[in-house]
Amino acid sequence: MAYISLDQVVKRYQMGEVTITAADHISFDIDKGEFVIIVGPSGAGKTTVLNILGGMDACDEGTITVDGSPVSSYSSRQLTTYRRYDIGFVFQFYNLVQNLTALENVELAAQICKDPLDAGDVLRHVGLGDRLNNFPAQLSGGEQQRVAIARALAKNPKLLLCDEPTGALDYVTGKSILKLLQDTCRQQGMTVIVITHNTAIAPMADKVIHVKNGRVDRIDRNPSPTPVEEIEW
Ligand SMILES: Nc1ncnc2c1ncn2[C@@H]1O[C@H](COP(=O)(O)OP(=O)(O)OP(=O)(O)O)[C@@H](O)[C@H]1O
């Protein structure tokens, strides 16, 4: 059985009289340590899938299994534990606490985990060894995203979920963030899922899941993924 498995997952949103089927029988598998990209146009259902996989929302039909556990039949209490211990999140706009330093932001997240990594060590790993005591406002966008990635990794999660992690960054900085995610996947065996609009970066992934109108349109596998520094777009 795959490390992560979605089988016929359906999610509907009721908007007054209208029902929107944001995820329409979505199925895919992900292996441990895989780098996966989910691509598709705006409104395709990418964030919906990520929210369901991350335990922030429940699906209406289908099953989700992560590391042998039936996430789709979890109670809200079990989902809280799952989000807290098993999932690292990285968002487009970093979502750092502005009045805490880089180190304190990472320590804060580490406090609610079972087996956290050392906050300073993780910040050094993401290249911020000399910025530990800076506040978010004193850091560039790329540096703030590195803090957010460190915060997610310090939890030592089973799965790193990234929703448009380079959406607010320029080309070079965005590329360096993708390199950090790719290196983390390869060097630590971390399972990483990245949502993006940018189909050009597809060659860097082990697996590319194309989503369209709430459905999986196609799944591509790259037997030998390209290092992101060799991709131009
Ligand atoms: N909480 C919600 N309530 C109602 N409709 C929603 C909700 N969340 C998403 N939707 C709808 O579900 C569909 C899929 O949205 P989703 O955010 O998953 O797409 P997306 O592929 O992530 O798009 P984008 O790239 O623009 O973020 C859209 O039609 C959206 O309007």
Word description of this protein:
The chain is an alpha/beta fold and 233 residues long. It has a single domain (4-230), classed as P-loop containing nucleotide triphosphate hydrolases (Rossmann fold). The protein is built from 6 helices and 10 strands, in the order E-E-E-H-E-E-H-E-H-H-H-E-H-E-E-E. The chain has a 6-stranded mixed β-sheet with strand order 6-7-8-3-9-10, with helices on both faces. Strand 9 and strand 10 (215-221) form a beta hairpin. Helix 3 packs parallel to helix 5 and helix 4 (119-125) crosses helix 5. The structure holds adenosine-5'-triphosphate (ATP).
Main sheet overview: 6 strands, mixed
Report the strand count. Answer: 10
CATH architecture descriptor name: 3-Layer(aba) Sandwich
Radius of gyration from CA coordinates: 17 Å
The tally of domains stands at: 1
Read across the widest sheet, the strand sequence of neighbours is 6-7-8-3-9-10
Shape: globular
SSE sequence, one letter per element = EEEHEEHEHHHEHEEE
CATH class category name: Alpha Beta
Helix content: 25-40%
Question: How many angstroms does the end-to-end distance come to?
Answer: 36 Å
Task: Average the pLDDT over all residues and give the rounded result.
Answer: 95
Uncertain spans, ≥5 residues at pLDDT below 50? Answer: none
CATH topology: Rossmann fold
Roughly what fraction of the amino acids lie in strands?
25-35%
CATH H-level superfamily: P-loop containing nucleotide triphosphate hydrolases
Structural class determined from secondary elements:
alpha/beta
Bound molecules: adenosine-5'-triphosphate
Our count of helices gives 6
InterPro entries: AAA+_ATPase, ABC_transporter-like_ATP-bd, ABC_transporter-like_CS, MacB-like_ATP-bd, P-loop_NTPase
GO molecular function: ATP binding
Family: Belongs to the ABC transporter superfamily.
Keywords: ATP-binding, Nucleotide-binding, Transport
